[in-house]
Design goal:
302 residues; alpha+beta; nine-stranded mixed β-sheet; 6 helices; 32% strand
Length: 302
């Protein structure tokens, strides 16, 4: 199904499903990049285990968060407070070891040179963001506790919400909601194990990343004789990339409260990547200016 989102961009979406790359290719979709068959070999279905989520905003969003001492839905037309997976270098190194173990089970693996960093180049792994200069980072476990404590009777519910396909992007969304909100009863529960796209277990979101790069300049070469891999250069090829976001259900007027001391500990500045998706009156800032705004905000609040 298709719709036009708030940014006037056409989306192809599938409700209540997290469709793998192979599943999407079986759908009746006219798509320039999804069906390319000349992409060089790369690490497919790498399992990342991610503890932290990030929420990025502009200057006015930053000031609003500190004014409210927390996070609210961005408009009355949206029920959601959005967070993205925050994949750390340690998460990438751990995923690399799991990938090697899956390639060469029951084998002593000797691979001294990191290789996954050549392929984890999409926006899902970048420090910059198209949504602003101010990045709040929390553990998912902490967010679930805060959300459950403030809005839920019992623990929040996690569900598979949608797969959304754009021109060169696949977005998998997870919805989190209180048990007494029944808007999402038809959506399946998020799994804790399995070979699906993503799930939640023991404080971690596990994610089987299928397309880690937007643009490929390298090829993965697997040497099964000595149980190792190495990377060679390749001509530039463009493809889709995939990522996971978490949408917390928010009713009008709800604020996910966080004390200001904790907010200051959780916020850092970042660069704004292209295409910039900030909405007026927000504008991208230099890192120097963003840092000064954060310093002055902290000083003004004592």
């Amino acid at each position: 199904m298709e719709r036009v989102n708030a940014r006037n961009v056409v989306e192809t979406y599938f409700e209540g499903k997290h469709l793998r790359l192979s599943d999407l290719k079986e759908e009746d979709i006219d798509h320039r990049y999804l069906f390319r068959n000349d992409i060089p070999a790369y690490p497919e279905s790498v399992e990342f285990q991610v503890q932290k989520l990030s929420h990025v905003t502009g200057r006015y969003g930053l000031e609003g968060i500190f004014k409210d001492s927390g996070f609210r839905q961005p408009s009355d037309t949206s029920h959601f407070l959005w967070w993205a997976l925050s994949v750390s270098p340690d998460d990438i190194r751990s995923a690399e070891q799991r990938f090697l173990a899956s390639l060469f089970p029951n084998t002593q693996i000797y691979n001294p040179q990191p290789f996954l960093e050549y392929f984890t180049t999409s926006k899902a792994f970048q420090k910059e963001s198209p949504y602003g200069n101010f990045c709040f980072t929390f553990s998912f476990r902490e967010l679930l506790y805060l959300y459950g404590d403030q809005f839920c009777t019992g623990t929040p519910v996690l569900r598979v919400y949608e797969t959304v396909l754009y021109r060169r992007e696949i977005l998998y969304t997870i919805v989190v909601h209180p048990r007494n909100i029944h808007l999402y009863d038809s959506y399946p529960r998020l799994p804790n194990t399995g070979d699906g796209v993503c799930g939640y277990r023991d404080g971690n979101i596990w994610w089987h990343c299928q397309a880690p790069s937007e643009t490929y300049w390298h090829r993965l070469n697997v040497n099964r004789r000595n149980s190792s891999v190495h990377v060679t250069t390749h001509k530039e090829e463009n493809y889709v990339w995939d990522h996971v976001c978490v949408a917390f259900h928010m009713e009008p007027g709800w604020v996910l409260h966080v004390d200001q001391g904790r907010l200051f500990k959780r916020v850092n500045v970042c660069g704004v990547s292209r295409p910039c998706l900030l909405k007026h009156p927000e504008t991208p800032l230099s890192l120097h200016k963003a840092k000064n705004i954060l310093i002055n905000l902290k000083a003004s609040m004592g």
